Amino acid sequence: MTLRGKSAVVTGSTSGIGLGIATALARQGAAVMLNGFGEAGVIETIRDGLAERSGAPVGFHGADMTKPAEIADLMAAAADAHGPVDILVNNAGIQHVDPIERFPAERWDAVIAVNLSSAFHTIQAALPGMRAGGWGRIVNIASAHGLVASAQKSAYVAAKHGLIGLTKTVALEAAGSGVTCNAICPGWVLTPLVQRQIDNRARDQGLSVEAAERDLLAEKQPSGRFVTPEQLGEVTLFLCSEAASQMTGSSLSIDGGWTAQ
Asked: Looking at the domain assignment, is residue 258 inside a domain?
């Protein structure tokens, strides 16, 4: 399989899941536009390293995914640099944990904006070009929390459930055009976002970080192992393959058995 000649945008791709997916796409030859936050020097090192290892063009755009105008600029910049976007991976995400009675309204708005609304804006920008080219792959990184809920994560759960609904609607609207839209629903992945939850658990419960990590996995993920960004990159490649050309509107659980319970 080769993606040479394809143009990809991966939001939230300067670390964790997004970087794992961007790395897999670039390895198969896709020109990739990275996006995310971080120190400029660190991001440039990531970009340079990925371009050197893959031999594919790799760019970066620092759009704030809460701001529609910056999202539009990201999508336009990707098209200008690498051609019309063929592969769109909506991965950007943030988290806030609190009981709903104490959940700050501004954090609700931010989580919904980044985890759900940004995908609407990127898809709206990319879909016309995909239709015109007769081929496109939209991959929304949802979560086990797009299928089941956990307490104190009202905004995240609402956003991820909404993202799966958006996935199904786009799949229906694009059916027959050569464009597919699917969601990947990871369980626990040891990303910076999850590491913060582990660190907070260790602090609040007086545990070692290792014990907090084991407890986190034991509560939800029967495999007792983290999903890796590399595994999610490989699943994304499958969704870009000919074998998945009739897979659309699907939600793929990669969660160590979490949602089988």
From this structure: no
Average pLDDT for consecutive 10-residue bins of the chain (261 residues)?
A: 96 97 98 97 98 98 98 98 98 96 98 98 98 98 98 98 99 98 97 89 96 95 96 98 98 98 95
With vertex at residue 204, the alpha carbon angle to CA 161 and CA 148, rounded to the nearest 5 degrees, is 15
Task: Looking at the structure, tell me whether residues 76 and 113 fall in a common domain.
Answer: yes
Report how far residue 228's alpha carbon sits from residue 175's, in angstroms, rounded to the nearest whole number.
Answer: 31
- Scan for tokens 């929304």, then name that residue: 140
Tokens representing residue 172 in the block = 């229906």
Does residue 156 carry a catalytic annotation?
Answer: yes
Report the alpha-carbon distance of residue 137 to residue 177 in Å, rounded.
11
- Which residue, among 214, 242, 12, has the nearest Cα to 113 in the 3D structure? 12
Same domain, 137 and 157: yes
Cα 83–Cα 33–Cα 180 angle in degrees, nearest 5: 70
Find out whether 77 and 2 touch, Cβ atoms under 8 Å.
no
Q: Where in the sequence is the domain holding 173, given as residue range(s)? A: 7-187+228-251
CB 258 within 8 A of CB 22: no
Burial label, 13 (beta-carbon count in 10 A; 0-12, 13-18, 19+) = buried
Contact 60, 38 (CB under 8 A): no
The residue among 135, 122, 222, 208 whose CA lies nearest residue 163 is 122
Q: 71-95: buried (b, 16+ CB within 10 Å) or exposed (e) per residue?
A: beebbebbbeebebbbbbbbbbbbb
CA distance linking residue 130 with residue 134, whole number of Å:
6
Q: Does residue 94 contact residue 197 with C-beta atoms inside 8 Å? A: no
List 156, 188, 226, 258, catalytic entry: 156
Q: How many CB atoms lie within 10 A of CB 259?
A: 16
